[in-house]
């Protein structure tokens, strides 16, 4: 019988787990790829969501009709200001021209100035400053006498039906060489001094102008002029020079009071030349 020898080889402990370890590494690599794929998908979805948010929040509104906000108006409504800009045909925020809008709004004779500001993505802010009347006069239009207002700079502009101005504090100035009115038209330069004087009296805060119903401008030779003041509630005319201030009005009221006590039937008082004279009816 042959002898058989059995030889046991010694194995290192780690060699027993070589195969299982490789499988685990393969599984680990699969998990890593899955994690990266999930991260990529999440990143793509996040970008899509951000893009959609940006589009609906900013891009889309800017491509639609802009939202207009108007402030500062008193005699105009916000809709009237917006209607002025319709000829611009601005279909979206990008089409809206700020300079053109300012030019259109400021061209209205009753508006002194305007500021237009665009705010992305679809806001338009308009601030207007309206002209403040200090006097009124009348012009002929289509055979009719029409009241127009005068601001401190001598600009004529139409009286508005929804005016917030106290008409009792705005005197009528007649006799101005103005027969018609165009947009932005001013009274002649030499009469703007009178308008400045009226504005200064109104700014004093005292109600002196409430005592005057009409100021008549009487033009003299060589381009000069004088004034006839018609007190409120009285038929007496008061002749004075071209200087109109608080002292002149106080002097007029004192003279009226004194003359009425002395002679009730007076038609005219002359305060020119530093003296007081009167004429009976």
Plain-language structure description:
This protein has 281 residues and is of the alpha/beta class. Helices cover 32% and strands 26% of the residues. It has five helices and twelve strands. The protein has helices at residues 18-62, 78-84, 98-106, 192-203, 246-262; strands at 67-71, 111-119, 123-130, 133-141, 144-151, 156-158, 172-174, 212-219, 225-231, 237-240, 266-270, 277-280. The strands form three sheets. It has a six-stranded mixed sheet, with helices on one face. A hairpin with a 6-residue loop joins strand 11 and strand 12. It is rod-shaped, with a radius of gyration of 43 Å. The model is unreliable at 11-17 (pLDDT under 50).
Strand fraction: 25-35%
The ordered H/E elements are HEHHEEEEEEHEEEHEE
Helix content: 25-40%
Distance, first to last CA: 175 Å
**Tell me, what's the shape?**
rod-shaped
- Report the sheet with the most strands, covering strand number, pairing sense and barrel closure: 6 strands, mixed
Calculate the mean pLDDT score and round it.
81
Structural class: alpha/beta
Q: How many alpha or pi helices?
A: 5
How many extended strands? 12
Radius of gyration, in Å, reads 43 Å
Give the oligomeric state: single chain
Low-confidence blocks of residues: 11-17
Strand order of the largest sheet: 7-8-9-10-11-12
């Amino acid at each position: 019988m042959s002898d058989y020898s059995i030889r046991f080889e010694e194995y290192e402990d780690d060699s027993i787990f070589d195969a299982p370890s490789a499988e685990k590494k393969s599984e680990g690599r699969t998990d890593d790829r899955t994690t990266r794929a999930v991260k990529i998908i999440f990143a793509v979805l996040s970008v899509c969501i951000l893009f959609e948010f940006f589009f609906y929040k900013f891009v889309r509104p800017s491509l639609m009709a802009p939202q207009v906000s108007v402030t500062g108006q008193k005699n105009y409504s916000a809709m009237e200001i917006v209607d002025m800009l319709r000829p611009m045909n601005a279909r979206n925020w990008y089409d809206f021209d700020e300079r053109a809008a300012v030019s259109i709004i400021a061209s209205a004779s009753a508006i002194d100035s305007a500021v237009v500001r665009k705010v992305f993505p679809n806001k338009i802010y308009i601030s207007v400053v309206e002209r403040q009347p200090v006097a009124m006069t009348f012009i002929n239009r289509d055979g009719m006498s029409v009241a127009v207002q005068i601001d401190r700079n001598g600009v004529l502009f139409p009286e508005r039906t929804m005016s917030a101005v106290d008409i009792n504090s705005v005197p009528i100035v007649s006799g101005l060489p103005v027969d018609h009115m165009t947009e932005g038209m001013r009274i002649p330069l030499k009469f703007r001094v009178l308008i400045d004087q009226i504005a200064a009296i109104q700014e004093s805060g005292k109600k002196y102008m409430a005592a005057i119903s009409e100021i008549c401008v009487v033009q003299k030779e060589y381009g000069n002029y004088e004034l006839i003041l018609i007190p409120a509630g009285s038929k007496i005319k008061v002749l004075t020079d071209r200087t109109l201030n608080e002292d002149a009005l106080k002097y007029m009221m004192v003279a009226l009071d004194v003359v009425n006590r002395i002679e009730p039937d007076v038609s005219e008082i002359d305060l020119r030349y530093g003296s007081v004279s009167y004429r009976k009816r």
